[in-house]
Amino acid sequence: MPYHEFDCSKCLPERQKHAVTKGAGDNLATALPLGYLNTIPGSISERGCAYCGAKHVIGTPMKDVIHMSHGPVGCTYDTWQTKRYISDNNNFQLKYTFATDVREKHIVFGAEGLLKQNIIEAFKACPDIKRMTIYQTCATALIGDDINAVAAEVMEEMPDVDIFTCNSPGFGGPSQSGGHHKINIAWINDKVGTVEPEITSDYVINYVGEYNIQGDQEVMLDYFTRMGIQVLSTFTGNGTYDGLRAMHRAHLNVLECARSAEYICNELRVRYGIPRLDIDGFGFEPLSQSLRKIGMFFGIEDRAEAIIAEETARWKPELDWYKERLKGKKVCLWPGGSKLWHWAHAIEEEMGVKVVSVYTKFGHQGDMEKGIARCGEDALAIDDPNELEGLEALEKLQPDIIFTGKRPGEVAKKVRVPYLNAHAYHNGPYKGFEGWVRFARDIYNGIYSPMHQLSGLDISKDEIPADRGFVTQRMLSDAKLPEEIAKSETLRRYTGKDDIISDLRKKNAPYFTPIVKAEAAE
């Protein structure tokens, strides 16, 4: 096994088995790090907990629900407004967070009375919301608070409300992924099948493992609508509590994020006979194949092909423009979950970049297996890295950009490596044909940002050239355009005076065509 030992982790020899470098001819039998294990004491991991996986990833995107954390207020802070799970009810679930704020006295004497008081107060404060999810945390689980009994008592006293309880304390798994499993199973055990929906189409699906990050779901729903498909429920992006109770009446479960939501799909198949179809909304070819599979299932392939042809004709030229300029750029793919394998091959094939490292903080071993299988030789694969290991990897690999979360992303910026937010996006959505071009645009802007290129200068000793970092000027210079054109382009970048460049475009249209396209995409 080609294990990779970090210098900073030599004091933790067992960490060596959590990182490998994929060599020539290596496969999953010879290049697979240990994964989905408890964090090694002393490594100071940045992992999330099972509570975070249940509430933050799965539960919170439900839009018409009071999400109540039963525990110390710090647990709630960790999951408040840190992802862009937008909804069409004025983002209620992002604007408000609810917690029982358990203190030391409640740990000693019990906090069930406090929970009941908070539930009633929350419903009174939000009279239009009649649904609630209660999330157990480590502290209240350890003292044995019975949140199910409290919820049942409140529902008996307030018959117009409905409450779902999620027993997923932070210690319920080695990472966030443990919480995914717990809330999936709890939801199908307690709520699915308790509401009968209105069926309006011959083709009915549940869209599962979709969380509507910056509107991802809306992009996909547009395709489904154009195919004549009714989306019965979305688990759980922009989803309604009662809509998700009706999942048992779908004809097909269309699964996007397999790691976070395959559990409920598998149970729906066992209990209700609903088949599961895994799809991928990222990348032109993976998305096209996904729409084709759905079309084939319902016998409406022609509708899928019409969408693919229309969208590809519209957006492929713009993607190709970015691919030409991103070719060979090195990327650390550190998203943490299913995007590890959703993106690994697609960005290399369709954007021309080179994935030099993959990692996961809270995924399962299956996530790492797929990620390694889809990346090329010499890629460094790491399970549950800490901050020092991340910095050492950046120094060794010298990537042009990394795709990761906010915490490691901000660290990368300090060592002059630009990052894109792989969890919540910079300027999403990234799904769909247009979204994939938007992703390429963000990568292009990140790598070629004058701000990042200038940030590498030491102003105490380095000369600061006026044109440093302005890639557009360098492209013009490489094309051997007259010096005054390059200067004018730089001037336009500084002053924003479009009239200068407009005249130049008229005189030198062939040189400026790509630039016009880039600006249109931006």
Describe the structure.
By secondary structure, the chain is an alpha/beta fold. It has four domains: 50-190, Nitrogenase molybdenum iron protein domain (Rossmann fold); 204-278, Rossmann fold; 314-447, Rossmann fold; 471-521, no CATH class. 48% of the residues lie in helices and 12% in strands. It has helices spanning 50-59, 73-77, 92-95, 104-109, 112-125, 138-142, 147-157, 176-190, 216-226, 241-244, 258-272, 284-298, 301-326, 339-351, 365-374, 387-397, 406-414, 432-447, 450-455, 471-478, 483-495, 498-507, 509-521, and strands at 19-21, 66-70, 98-99, 131-136, 162-166, 204-210, 230-236, 252-255, 276-278, 330-333, 354-360, 380-383, 401-404, 419-421. The strands form three sheets. The chain has a six-stranded mixed sheet with strand order 1-12-11-10-13-14, sandwiched between helices. A four-stranded parallel sheet has the order 3-2-4-5, with helices on both faces. A four-stranded parallel sheet has the order 7-6-8-9, sandwiched between helices. The radius of gyration is 25 Å and the shape is globular. Residues 475-522 have low confidence and may be disordered.
